[in-house]
């Protein structure tokens, strides 16, 4: 889920309202507690992502610990930077490296539906990167590709010039 930061200015509660709230036993902590450190948020600004609030400094990627500035991604309560969200959580996976594919990645998409990062579109036998339009052998079960030279060597027992 892509969440834009919402900066909310914190304001002290109205004193009359505070007395009413205290008298009926409702939590008077209108500032909220940071989801990461559980500390009370008394700063001028806090960050709200969905229904949870955070100190600005506590909004960090759960993988690389980078402070998230403009954009963050959330999955199952964990916050991610863009790079790690797509690497770890993307529903689209490279058939070569099995890592996630981000919207900005250059890829090869085969007619079979298999998708490869440009650097991962390589022969499973020799590792040579395969060119667009090059004739290749596709193994849909193993999710691999091979150049025709290795196809002929392995399957037919002969070599192609």
From TrEMBL:
<dbReference type="GO" id="GO:0030182">
    <property type="term" value="P:neuron differentiation"/>
</dbReference>
<keyword id="KW-0371">Homeobox</keyword>
<dbReference type="GO" id="GO:0000977">
    <property type="term" value="F:RNA polymerase II transcription regulatory region sequence-specific DNA binding"/>
</dbReference>
<dbReference type="Pfam" id="PF00412">
    <property type="entry name" value="LIM"/>
</dbReference>
<dbReference type="InterPro" id="IPR050453">
    <property type="entry name" value="LIM_Homeobox_TF"/>
</dbReference>
<keyword id="KW-0539">Nucleus</keyword>
<dbReference type="GO" id="GO:0005634">
    <property type="term" value="C:nucleus"/>
</dbReference>
<dbReference type="GO" id="GO:0000981">
    <property type="term" value="F:DNA-binding transcription factor activity, RNA polymerase II-specific"/>
</dbReference>
<keyword id="KW-0238">DNA-binding</keyword>
<dbReference type="InterPro" id="IPR001781">
    <property type="entry name" value="Znf_LIM"/>
</dbReference>
<feature type="domain" description="LIM zinc-binding">
    <location>
        <begin position="92"/>
        <end position="157"/>
    </location>
</feature>
<keyword id="KW-0862">Zinc</keyword>
<feature type="domain" description="LIM zinc-binding">
    <location>
        <begin position="32"/>
        <end position="91"/>
    </location>
</feature>
<dbReference type="GO" id="GO:0046872">
    <property type="term" value="F:metal ion binding"/>
</dbReference>
<protein>
    <recommendedName>
        <fullName>LIM zinc-binding domain-containing protein</fullName>
    </recommendedName>
</protein>
<keyword id="KW-0440">LIM domain</keyword>
<keyword id="KW-0479">Metal-binding</keyword>
């Amino acid at each position: 889920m892509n969440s834009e930061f919402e900066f909310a200015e914190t304001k002290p509660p109205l004193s009359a309202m505070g007395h009413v709230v205290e008298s009926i036993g409702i939590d008077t902590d209108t500032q909220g507690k940071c989801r990461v450190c559980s500390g009370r948020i008394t700063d001028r600004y806090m960050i709200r992502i969905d229904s949870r609030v955070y100190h600005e400094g506590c909004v960090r990627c759960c993988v690389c610990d980078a402070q998230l500035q403009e954009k963050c991604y959330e999955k199952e309560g964990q916050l991610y930077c863009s790079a790690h969200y797509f690497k770890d959580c993307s529903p689209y996976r490279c058939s070569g490296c099995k890592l996630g594919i981000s919207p900005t990645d250059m890829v090869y998409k085969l007619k079979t539906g298999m998708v490869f990062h440009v650097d991962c579109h390589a022969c499973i036998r020799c590792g040579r990167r395969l060119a667009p339009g090059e004739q290749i052998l596709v193994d849909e079960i193993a999710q691999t590709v091979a150049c025709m030279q290795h196809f002929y060597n392995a399957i037919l027992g002969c070599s192609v010039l």
